[in-house]
Amino acid sequence: MGITVGVVKGNGIGPEITEATLHVLEATGLSFDWVPVAIGDEGVKKYGHPLPQESVKLLREVKRAIKAPLLVDKFKGRLYCEHEDGSVGVYPSLNNAIRRELGLYVCPRPIKGIPGISGNYEKLDVHIMREITEDVYSGIEHMIGDYAAECTKLTTRLAAIRVAEYAFQYARQNGRKRVSCVHKANAVSMADGLFLSCFREVAAKNPDIPSDDFMVDASAYFMAKCPEKFDVIVAANQYGDILSDLAAGLVGSLGLAPGANVGPDGLIIAEASHGAAPDIAGKGIANPIALILSGALLLREMGYRKEAGQVEDATMRVLSWKKAMTPDLGGNASTMDVARAIAHEMRQAER
Ligand code: ATP
What we know:
5-stranded mixed sheet; binds adenosine-5'-triphosphate; single chain; about 350 residues; alpha/beta
């Protein structure tokens, strides 16, 4: 029997980069049982809902999954998920619904410069721990007539403490040297003030790892000007979302930024930082590396450290030697060319 991993193949560029990722993960020599999970269009087709409870249940059972991006309809209102006990979850988007239905609470996004590719940002090496259950993405907003709209920035002690604890534990387990909290507590004194004070509380219990904090605007400036200031960052949902796209852009492409959604009881869903990129979907030119590296992250979490290292090392070699690069990195390779080049490198290294 193989290793069971759920697969949400998504839409937009999702199916293309999923095929590439599974190809590379299979080149580790591990044997996988890929379990398709119907979400989005597939969920509607199979069960009549973009996030069917059957699929939520399946993800809880398999615990580990690879999820490609799902198109997010802008200005489309709310998603309602009815539960067996009669309660209803109301969410602002499908991605948000998946995270909250499963209790996934932190999204680690390791972003690293690549020699020969990232120019001035080759030394950028920052791991962003994005809180993913609340903040302005909680969906608590309403119109006031047609002349104003009000949106709540939710911060709870539970979520702020939980993400900070995860960041310090992550830093310790991954040999990282510093944890920084990103906030705007001078302007949003209560919501961000609480986020920061929870962070400081957790930092005080982890004196072996140095910590500090920065305003979010200054953080964007430092990220662009002197990214070596940062090691591990803890941020509320929106700041983490924006800073991780910024870091990805600095190292060369959103297609290089992996990530995962982590929840209780060992639940982990590997997911690239980028979206479904409808502008390039179906052309076979999407960069699959962010999802491939997310797959490596999943392997490491599952205890397959050697295989995770194989994938990461081969990916770095293919990129540094410019062996196969998609158009976002200035090359003309296809999505599958990149996957085949990485798989080939892995086999060569094994000899
Ligand atoms: P979301 O809100 O779901 O994060 P988005 O609207 O912010 O999505 P993306 O889908 O991430 O946007 O795309 C932003 C830009 O980056 C687009 O021009 C897209 O083509 C490009 N892009 C994103 N991912 C990739 C990739 N894997 N390879 C190449 N280009 C990409």
